[in-house]
Amino acid sequence: MKIVWELGAATVRDVYEALLKRRKIAYTTVLTMMKILEQKKYLKKAAGEPGERAHVYQPSRPKEQVIKAMVRDFIDRVFNGSAEPLLVHLARDRRISDEDLERIVRLVRGNTQAAGGV
After folding, report:
1. Domain 2-59 - what CATH class?
2. Is residue 35's pLDDT more than 70?
């Protein structure tokens, strides 16, 4: 998705070649992942040039919406819908700085207070 967001629209070959610069990957793996992203409605086939055989893909929704949906799907699949184990893991693994934790607490408290909670 990052590559398609960067390019605005891309073929499977475009994504494959961009990924190949970073690491070894099979073309069929990229093709499969892009088909899955299309099935999940994160990508859509764009109108390509007449006579072109390759499908051109573009994001179907804004980046923020796609990231939100992907994170929600990940939490549902891996953590049974609860973000707490993920946050605990990130905090213990020091992937979240103290400043980030404080910011998260402020955001949560702000949303709770706005909703009439504690």
Report:
1. mainly alpha
2. yes
Q: Which residues pair with 11 in a beta bridge?
A: none
Look at the alpha carbons of 7, 10, 13, 15 in this order and tell me if their dihedral is positive or negative. Answer: positive
Of 40, 49, 47, 38, which is closest to residue 15 (Cα–Cα)?
Answer: 38
Q: Write the single-letter amino acid at 15.
A: V
Query: Could you give the CA distance from residue 86 to residue 73 in angstroms, rounded to a whole number?
Result: 13
CA atoms within 13 A on the CB side of 73: 9
- Encoded tokens for 104: 């998260």
Buried b (16+ CB within 10 A) or exposed e, 25-50: eeeeebeebbeebeeeebbeeeeeee
Using CA atoms, how far apart are residues 5 and 18, in angstroms rounded to an integer? 13
The two beta strands, 43-46 and 56-59, are antiparallel
pLDDT tens per residue, range 66-112: 999 989 999 999 999 998 898 888 878 877 888 888 888 888 888 65
